Automatic annotation (TrEMBL):
Gene Ontology MF annotations: DNA-binding transcription factor activity; transcription cis-regulatory region binding
Record key words, sorted: DNA-binding, Transcription, Transcription regulation
Database matches in Pfam families: HTH_1, LysR_substrate
Residues annotated as domain HTH lysR-type: 1-58
InterPro entries cross-referenced by the UniProt entry: LysR-like_Sec_metab, LysR_HTH_N, LysR_subst-bd, WH-like_DNA-bd_sf, WH_DNA-bd_sf
Protein name: LysR family transcriptional regulator
Family the UniProt entry places it in: Belongs to the LysR transcriptional regulatory family.
């Protein structure tokens, strides 16, 4: 048994497919199958049941998977430690981020980190908060930044940055700059899709004030913040969005902020990690950088 075989095994386990694992690892499918067969022979057990074109991990595979991840992480950490001896942090950092932090926060934070550690490369995967949390739970990601705290016993949530949600409309649609929440809810509203952190926080705010989302005039549901902004610009309705996401539109008068007279709408962005995963050195250093930068970002997003 070696690290290479364990990496192949974990890829097959996560993808539930020999062909997908071969594509992910840039190996031929017979090579992947041969390595799994050698591993099964060495461990004297079957790791996958072949069910036609699909495979199903056995109980032995489920036990091996968690231990294999730990062994692979420890081996990677040895490389990190050797890099530290050379005073150089290198490697790949993959971050899962929900739309607002992924689009409006992480690029500048990553750019500052790269100036100090140029040998580190980044990939930012943007999805909704629910998807990011699920990927970390399934060990497909190590860290994420999300805009909603979802119920998951495997996940650690660390507060990162407070965000303000505001009401925006097209300047032509609404002339009144001040309204109560109940007055606002008489207007058509454009929403993000379910699973979005902004959508979840919007529903929570409304429910806390005795308003059900089902009783609002939903003008449309959109799969991205940019799509919502375009709908609002076109006069489809108002929307509740992060101040971060509409900073430029407000500055140039493309959108207008409607100030609520009776409530403030704030929510927290969270750093999410798996409770049982050990972060490689590069990830740990980057997270320290993120926490430091959150203080600087907070001062720049005040209205």
């Amino acid at each position: 048994m070696d690290i290479h075989q364990l990496k192949i095994f974990t890829s097959v386990f996560k993808n539930k497919s020999f062909s997908k694992a071969s594509e992910e690892l840039y190996l031929t499918q017979p090579t992947v199958s041969d390595h799994i067969k050698v591993l099964e022979d060495e461990l004297n057990c079957k790791l996958f049941d072949r069910l036609g074109r699909t495979i199903m991990p056995t109980k032995e595979a489920e036990v091996l998977f968690n231990h294999a991840l730990e062994i692979i992480e420890k081996a990677d950490n040895i490389k990190d430690l050797l890099c530290n001896l050379k005073k150089e942090i290198s490697g790949d950092i993959i971050i899962g981020a929900s739309t607002i932090p992924g689009t409006y926060l992480m690029p500048s934070i990553v750019a500052k980190f790269k100036k100090v550690y140029p040998s580190v490369s980044f990939q930012i995967l943007i999805s909704d908060s629910r998807d990011i949390v699920e990927k970390i739970s399934r060990h497909e990601l190590l860290i994420g930044i999300v805009g909603a705290r979802l119920t998951n016993s495997q996940i650690t949530y660390t507060p990162f940055l407070e965000d303000e949600l505001i009401v925006v409309s097209s300047p032509k649609l609404i002339k009144n700059k001040h309204m109560t929440l109940k007055e606002l809810m008489k207007l058509p509203i454009a929403l993000r899709e379910e699973g979005s952190g902004t959508r979840k926080e919007t529903e929570k705010i409304l429910e806390n004030n005795g308003i059900s989302i089902e009783n609002t005039k939903v003008a449309g549901i959109f799969g991205s913040t940019d799509a919502v902004k375009q709908a609002v610009k076109a006069g489809l309705g108002i929307s509740i969005l992060s101040r971060l996401s509409v900073k430029d539109e407000l500055k140039y008068g493309i959108l207008r902020e409607i100030k609520l007279t009776d409530i403030k709408m704030n929510r927290m962005f969270y750093i999410v990690t798996h409770k049982k995963r050990t972060l490689p050195t590069a990830y740990s250093i980057f997270l320290d950088h993120v926490r430091t930068e959150s203080k600087n970002v907070h001062n720049t997003i005040k209205p």
